[in-house]
Amino acid sequence: MDVRSFPSFNVPKRVNIHVNSYRKDWHWRLLTILILGTIGAGLWVATSKVNYAWRWNRVPQYFVYHHEFVKRAHYDSRVIEIEAIGDSTTVTIRNQFDEVESFVIDSDTLKVFPDENIFAGDLIGSTFKWEIGPLLYGLGVTLWISAISSIIGLIIGLITGLCRLAKNVTLRQLSIIYIEIIRGTPLLVQIFIVYFFFGTVLNIDRMAAGIAALSIFAGAYVAEIIRAGIQSIPKGQMEAARSLGMNTPQAMVHIILPQAFKRTLPPLAGQFISLIKDSSLVSVIAITDLTKAGREVITSTFATFEIWFVVAFLYLTLTSVLSQVIAWVERRLAVSD
Fold first, then answer.
1. Which sequence ranges are marked TM in the entry (predicted)?
2. Contact 125/71 with Cβ under 8 angstroms?
3. Which of 153, 244, 259, 333 is the most buried (most CB within 10 A)?
């Protein structure tokens, strides 16, 4: 059979370029693997020198755990009925006041017998339920604080950025003062001021104070990002919008801001990623975020390295997911260009 009779398959040019690039850079990829392997080996040697015993098996229980709820008699009583249904057992007792109480427990934890006389505090049985551990709870708090602070910070930054460009001198000066004060003082100091001063005067709790401090902090940086994005749009865009009969607010909303949003998306993403990491500072006002939860776990387990590595990995996961989402949004917006 003639070989020429077989159909030919054309490999796409893009695939060929990718394969050739991979073959060309294989030694650099190998060097990357060697560097990462060297770093890993160095960490292993460092922990070996301090004679540290790794206890990774203790970590999972601080995400979710099987909690035991112990059921005990409240008064001197007598067991009048025990009914087993599947894996659960219902124990009915009559106390010294002739009152009937029922307890639902796991069948394999039953500690009493029918017609048995029991005393106050005696164990009847237990039930087990899955509960959220401190690390998972702290992760949820961090997500909540970061998300709310990012939204409020974006609103504050948008308003402040527009005031920064306003023709009204008072609005422009007030926005500049706010931006300079927030950017010129540490976030930790701002958290203390908001919680201990404004929190006391306005009677707000620590969660609201932490969110407020992070939002105000993020708003100052977002304002400068939005200002730069708006100023990067050619002035001809505004003039063209005005020539079509739009007023300044309409032109800003429909013409300028959509274009500025595309240009400011990468720096905004960087600011929100930094905000996730900066949210760890709210632990200083006793908010049980991921960082504080990690410290509490360490005090009870002494598994210092394992917990901090896990906490760092969780923060890295959050920021990486946000980075991927922003990259996806950028690709979607680039289609319309």
1. 26-46, 135-163, 175-198, 210-230, 307-329
2. yes
3. 153
Domain that includes residue 77, residue range? 66-131
Q: Is residue 168 part of a domain?
A: yes
**What's the total number of domains in the chain?**
2
Residue 139 sits in the same domain as residue 179: yes
For the record, the structure tokens of 260 come out as: 């500025």
The neighbouring-strand residues paired with 66 are: 130
| CATH code assigned at 303 | 1.10.3720.10
> What digits encode the pLDDT tens for the residues 85-115?
888 889 999 988 888 888 998 888 888 888 8
Nearest to 316 by CA among 63, 152, 142: 142
- Alpha helix (H) ranges present in 117-168? 134-164
User: pTM for the whole thing?
Assistant: 0.80
Please, what's the largest Cα pairwise distance for the chain? 101
103/222 same-domain check: no
Q: What phi and psi, each to the nearest 5 degrees, are found at residue 55?
A: -130, 60
Residue 114 vs residues 23, 79, 83, 91, 111: alpha-carbon distances, Å: 77, 5, 10, 9, 11
Contacting residues for 8 by C-beta, under 8 A, at least 6 apart: none
Residue 21: the pLDDT is: 59
Q: Helix/strand/coil (H, E, C) string of 224-285?
A: HHHHHHHHCCCHHHHHHHHHCCCCHHHHHHHHHHHHHHHHHHHHHHHHHHHHHHHHHHHHHH
